[in-house]
Write a structure and sequence with these properties.
With 162 residues, chain A is mainly α. Chain A has five helices and three strands. Chain B is an all-alpha fold and 134 residues long. In chain B, α3 runs antiparallel to α4. The chains are: A mainly alpha (162), B mainly alpha (134).
């Protein structure tokens, strides 16, 4: 079973993506999507040495909703900064975010989240993967920003990824 | 009913247009490259998101045919936008930013752009050592 479907979640995602691409749900498309969903993970299995598993799928849904909401709020904030603040009053900072996450997938998720929420961009990772370097467009309190990233996103990712 | 839906769609389009405009304005206005990198991340999220929601509403409620392409565009954007931003940042930093202007990593190793990762063998030796200690 593990040989045939090495990554069940990826198989389901691929099938759904295929149905979305053809934009029409018919039995034929579903079967073709399922075939692709089984074949592609089998062919790419060597590239997934440690198959990541979601420990709490509902937490993941909650995480996605929180991130979407934050993106909306942060967009307005950054737009406000760009339009109203003169350039010499924008105080950009480099932040070091120490990581408790260890799995590469979880760190990628966190880095992507930080970049997608405007106002912060993930720039580099430490050579041993112990911290992220984040560029912040404008903040008066860099430490509060780091604490916010850790408590809002990293804590939840720690619960989602084992 | 159609009128209300049309107003709603128009509102989404106008909002995304405003954010696209502010994002582009930020590209011109901000001073250094790292700051400018923040502007396009905005245009891809709310700017594109608003257009996509408007498009879904249009096809779902007015044309009467549900379309999934918008969801896929959102998915692919969320997968690719952070990676693009990260690569632009890295390229810029490799050419223009000196390591000593950055904050410390807080561990024995520096940032990945300027330093090699720890050797796997060394890593294993370290772990072996620390497990023997107690």
């Amino acid at each position: 079973m593990t040989r045939l479907i090495p990554h069940p979640l990826l198989s389901v995602t691929l099938t759904l993506v295929w149905l979305g691409l053809v934009n029409k749900v018919t039995l034929g498309n579903l079967i073709l999507g399922a075939v692709l969903g089984v074949a592609i993970p089998m062919l790419t299995a060597p590239y997934w040495p440690n198959r990541p598993t979601l420990r709490r799928p509902f937490k993941a849904v909650e995480y996605v909703l929180i991130v979407l909401w934050d993106i909306l709020v942060a967009n307005v904030k950054v737009a406000w900064i760009i339009v109203t603040k003169p350039n010499d009053q924008i105080r950009s900072h480099w932040l070091t975010v120490p990581l408790e996450l260890t799995s590469p997938e979880a760190i990628t998720m966190l880095g992507g989240t930080i970049t997608m929420t405007p106002g912060t961009v993930t720039a580099l990772i430490a050579a041993d993967g112990s911290s992220l370097l984040v560029h912040c467009l404008h903040t008066d309190d860099p430490e509060a920003e780091v604490a916010g990233i850790k408590s809002r996103y990293e804590r939840r990712l720690l619960e989602i990824f084992p | 009913m159609d009128q209300i839906v049309e107003f709603l769609i128009a509102a989404f389009l106008v909002v995304s247009g405003i954010f696209g405009l502010v994002g582009s304005f930020g590209l011109i206005k901000l001073k250094d490259t790292m700051q400018r990198l923040h502007a396009p991340t905005k245009a891809t999220t709310v700017g594109v998101g608003g257009v996509l929601i408007g498009s879904m509403l249009y096809f779902g409620l007015i044309k009467g045919s549900l379309s999934f392409h918008e969801l896929l565009i959102t998915l692919f954007l969320f997968l690719t936008a952070p990676i693009t931003a990260n690569f632009i940042a890295k390229t810029y930093m490799a050419q223009r930013v000196r390591e000593d202007t950055l904050p410390e990593t807080g561990s024995d190793y520096g940032w990945a752009l300027y330093n090699d990762p720890p050797e796997p063998a060394e890593d294993a030796a370290l772990r072996h050592q620390s497990s023997r200690k107690p």
